[in-house]
Amino acid sequence: MRQEQFEALYGQRWREFESWLGQRVYSRRERDKEPAAFAAREVPRRYREICRHLALARARDYGASLVERLHHLAVAGHDAVYSAPSGLGARFRAYLMSGFAQDVRELRRFVLVAALLLGLPYLALGIVTRYNPDFAYYVMSPRAVWRFENMYDGERLGRTRDAGTDVAMFGFYINNNIGIAFRCYGGGALAGLGTAAALVFNGIFMGTIEGRLVAKGHGKNFYSFVAGHSSFELFAIVLAGACGLRLGWGLLAPGRRSRGQALKHAAKETAGVIAGAAVMLLIAATIEAFWSPLRLDPPIKYAVGIAGILAVASYFLLAGRRDASR
Question: Which of 139, 285, 308, 318 is most buried when burial is the number of CB atoms within 10 A of its CB?
Fold first, then answer.
């Protein structure tokens, strides 16, 4: 169905819903002067209809103005039907509880491609460097190799740190993680090539570090240190890469939009996901700064790491399923 036909068929229904929303802000005396747009018992059905029309408009790639209008009606209708507060904090909590996971599932193809671009080089270089530890010098400088081996040395890893050092490392980890995510996302403006390069480079770099440390006997220290925060950090980087690839795809396949409009639409579509990825990186930095350095038995840290993986996987697979079939 063409957009013009869609609007002609349902436009009157939308205007009636807008009228009903407007009547809610009138005083009782003013409402009595003007008859209701429809009976109160129809409100739930009308609200579900608006949500269905919004989903159809998005799926059929109708114009941005129509999608924005229906989105506004759906949000306002939700607040009216469920008496939900419209404040920023309430919207953030609602998005965190379900909307974030739903949006990630909408981007699942880009998420899969980003995971492969990061994961395949990671696995390949990890295997190569385990069997040939000196291969690390082709990827990193000798000083960088020494620095990582020194960092995960058994006598130093997990040493007691004061609170000031933990806070300083927290800031360092945030700066480092956000920098990686920004390059993965911003690279999408180069038709996705910058994003792909950033993901592959980070996969090579991380795989090389892991392989070298394992080959030199530091595997136990390495895995016990990264176990707690890796699920949040790695998946957040994958999400940033998926958002960057979505930007790139908007430039390569703009459809009926101009490339500028397609890029703007893709940026708006991925805004929530990239914000959610930033929150995940904040969680990862907190764990890495305050939990990972603790001197605890490796099984305890592995258990926490497994719990983190299960929590992240369960959230993105299950959250929001009852709200929509996404």
Answer: 285
Cα(213)–Cα(152) distance, rounded to whole angstroms? 8
Look at the pTM and tell me if it is higher than 0.85: no
DSSP code per residue over 119-158:
HHHHHHHHHHHHH-GGGHHHHS-HHHHHHHHHHT-TTTTT
**How many separate domains does the chain show?**
2
Mean residue pLDDT across the chain:
83
Note whether 8 and 126 are same-domain residues.
no
Same domain flag for 122 and 181? yes
pLDDT tens-place string over residues 145-199: 888 888 887 654 544 455 455 566 666 677 777 888 888 888 988 889 999 999 9
If asked whether residues 149 and 221 sit together in one domain, one would say: yes
Give the whole-angstrom CA distance, residue 220 versus residue 210: 11
Asked if residue 264 belongs to a domain, the reply is yes
Q: How far is 219 from 90, CA to CA, in rounded Å?
A: 44
- In this structure, what token pair is assigned to residue 257? 């939009």
DSSP 237-299: HHHHHHHHHHHHHHHH--TTS-HHHHHHHHHHHHHHHHHHHHHHHHHHHHHHHHTTTS---HH
> Domain containing 212: what range?
104-318
Helix (H) or strand (E) holding 29: helix 28-33
Low-confidence winner among 25-29, 158-162, 264-268 (lowest mean pLDDT): 25-29
